[in-house]
Amino acid sequence: MFKYIILAFLALFTTLANTAPVAQTNTGDVTFFAPGLGACGKTNSASDLMVAVSFEFFNSFGPQTNGNPICGRQIQATAPGGKTVTVTVEDKCAGCAQFDLDMSPAAFDQLADPSVGRLHGVTWHLL
User: Fold this and answer.
1) Helix (H, G, I), strand (E, B), or coil: what is residue 124?
2) Could you give the 3-state DSSP secondary structure of residue 29?
């Protein structure tokens, strides 16, 4: 019996340790890219309000791609000037630092003119 209690405790601890914090506000750079088939298994276009999060952030929800718990979650991002956009996580970004976001052109356009190329100091959180 004691063995099963320990196993249950270890399973619970492992699950909690592998769960990324969802209520925190993060700050990073935002860029944009031409979406296609993403890590979540969905094909997106430039007009979709979608985002790719960093490999590190994506994988903190689990190692799998299709069916990862972060897939389909929404993020609200706010640029330093106060403009906001709500985007859906559909991909992971190989070149992003932990809290950077890579958005579709339509999503980036909600925050700034694409000629800016990269926004610094964007705050965001999961909804």
Assistant:
1) strand
2) strand
